[in-house]
Amino acid sequence: MTRPSDTDHSPAHILVVDDTPANRYVLATTLRRAGHQVTEAEDGTRALDLLRGPGPLPEIAIVDVRLPDMTGFDVCEHIKNDPATAAVPVINISAAAITVDDRAQGLYRGADAYLVEPVAPDELLATVTATLRYTRARRRAELLAERLHLLNRLTLALYSAADARELVKVTAEAAAVIFRCSVAALLTTPQGSPLVAHTWQDEDGTARADAPQVHSTAAWPQRRDPSGRAQPPGADLPCLPPDLKDPARRRTVIGRAKAERPPVVIVTSADAVTTPDDEQLLTQLTQASALALEALRSYSEEHALALTLQRSFLPESLPATPRADLAVRYLPASERTEIGGDFYEAISTPAGLVVAVGDVAGHSLDAAMVMGQVRHALRAYAAEGHPPQVILSCLDHLLASVEPGATVTLCVVLIEFGSDTLHVANAGHLPPLIRHPDGTTSYVHEHGPLLGLGLAHPPARRITVVPGSLLLLVTDGLVERRHEDLQHSLATLAAVAAGVPADPEEACGLLLERLLPDGSDDVALMAVRLNAVRPD
């Protein structure tokens, strides 16, 4: 950090404590002529009352050693032992206590300097200036250390922001905490929407004293100087209070992670940013926010790309057969969650309609890639006419060959065209649910091991289902909830399914409305209404 400009000769507020009016007058007059503000006290008790009272502390206390109620040494110790006043420097002064022992005692008991009267005006002012120089330098160092600590802690908060709205709020809050002033922060979300967070007023002008308020706002003009460099936004920034409309009364800093990106902008009062150290801190905070926004932007772009890829692996259409009416829903996890490997499939084969819902373990682009391979292989094996349990065995062998270590849960159901029989083969997936025409429900609980373990799969379960029944296949994102037993979740699904309409589209909509996925996982849902077998 660079050193700030020298302000050690600027006037200070000084407390003069002396029981002799003539001495107080001489000291106070000398100090006032030099531009200082002086407060006078006639004894130690009055001096301590002034220090403990309301209002700003004096920057220096000049205390006579011989006072009527206590010694100047005692006054100094009281000042130094009180955390509220310990930083106030004390200059002892005396015309009587002038021995080496006296001066040593004063310094040992907390005085920062010791003057012997009569003291020349130049010596008094020079001592005051030297004391101020040291004290102000120390305060600047302490303030800088505190602000660097805050910057470090708040930078972690910036990178922990889950979205752009939280990021702009944390940015404004961080600047307000570090610089102790009103602040506005502006950025453009990865989706292109400008946001502003401000600490001084709400949109309707109502004063606010709590956390920064975040609002959408119109895009602000991007000005450039003759050399093409971007310039900070001007007085047309949204939500600026009247006292910051004047550019001379505010400090505006912009930051970008890349030249072509919209900037992050922080606006503060000019009075709060007065030294080169302050300038660097504000610049670092702005740049940290810009880098955090870039990380959010990169994640958003990668998530959108992965989601597009994932959707491309899902069927574009469902087969239309007289035997069944189908409806599906696929909901990706929230933007804050990695994509998963949930999928569904439906294909008409000579033996009947094959429907399936599965889930690749894990949440990543790799999981989506495995999902694509499994779904396409499932479709190929079904088209070749393999029964459900053989399809599972073939898929298990495929995973062991091309994706060792990957595991998949999958439920495959063959709906015969010529009878009311279903063949259910389940590899570790949630059990399929059947809602019968009378409103009762039942699960097909039998299942084998999940795919990818190289274990044998049992024969498919054969069940007879009357026409008008509704077959529901789901992934765990629809029913599983943290801290909730899975059996309870399945019971809830069955209870809701008992009251849904027979129409598959309406059933899917009502299930999603009643169960309301929490967004922590993808959801794949397939509803199949079984129709009566038509004679050939």
Shape: rod-shaped
Quaternary state reads single chain
State the helix count: 12
DSSP summary, beta strand count: 22
**Low-pLDDT ranges:** 1-6, 203-209
Helix content: 25-40%
The average pLDDT value, as a whole number, equals 82
Largest sheet: 5 strands, parallel
Strand order of the largest sheet: 2-1-3-4-5
Q: Which percent range describes the beta-strand content?
A: 15-25%
What is the terminal-to-terminal distance? 88 Å
Radius of gyration, taken over Cα atoms and rounded to an integer in Å: 38 Å
Helix/strand structural class: alpha+beta
Walkthrough of the structure:
The N terminus is likely disordered. Helix 1 links the parallel strand 1 and strand 2. The strands form 5 sheets. A 5-stranded parallel β-sheet has the order 2-1-3-4-5, with helices on both faces. Helix 2 packs parallel to helix 3, helix 5 packs parallel to helix 7 and helix 11 packs across helix 12. Helix content is 37%, strand content 22%. The N and C termini lie far apart (88 Å). The longest helix has 40 residues. It is built from 12 helices and 22 strands. It is α+β, with helices and mostly antiparallel strands and 536 residues long.
